[in-house]
Amino acid sequence: MMKNIIKWLNNAVVLGILLALGLIWDLILVGHAYDLNKGEWASWVQAVGSILAIMVAFWIAYHQLQHSRRLEKERAISEDRRRVEIIQAMLISAWVLAYSLKTAITSNDTEFLANFNWKSLHDLADSFRSIRMIEVPDVTIVITVTPMPTALEMVASPFRHHGMADRYESGGSIMRDLKSAVEDLLDATDNAKSSCAIVLQRLENQ
């Protein structure tokens, strides 16, 4: 019961009505105490009406301000969510590329590796670089996403700097470097995706 009363009192509308009723009652008591005549009562009622009009105007302004603040908060949350979801989509693309390379390396699928479009890694790295980190809504995303361009370029490097013939006649060192770079990319992608998921959940709960 007490919790419901406190909840009602925290409601601006209910509190405003209670204050208005209390003021009207006090003014009526004052009017009776001074034994006002009909003309004085008319002036007294007009005064009460003026005060109530001021209170209503104040409440309307307050309500509009609260509504504007709520809309602004919702807009900001929506924009933050959109930014995180874009980053999340880029991370999924990076993960798919890395996992496909890992699968090809593990199965020794040289045909896939020979036809792999390594420039897609470079393009994705550029996309990560283009992110305005100052607009990212959480520092953990900034920290985990910042290494992504380097991780992507490290995977692209063996493709960029070695011809296909040299790549497979080098005794496996290039393949080992590629495998290590792919594992690092997968780790970086998983860390960044986890950060995005946590932030999205937090935004959802706001």
From TrEMBL:
Can you say what this protein is called?
Uncharacterized protein
Keywords of the record, alphabetical order, are: Membrane, Transmembrane, Transmembrane helix
Please spell out the taxonomic lineage of the organism that makes this protein. Bacteria, Pseudomonadati, Pseudomonadota, Betaproteobacteria, Burkholderiales
Which domain of life does the UniProt lineage start with?
Bacteria
Its transmembrane ranges are 12-31, 43-62, 83-101
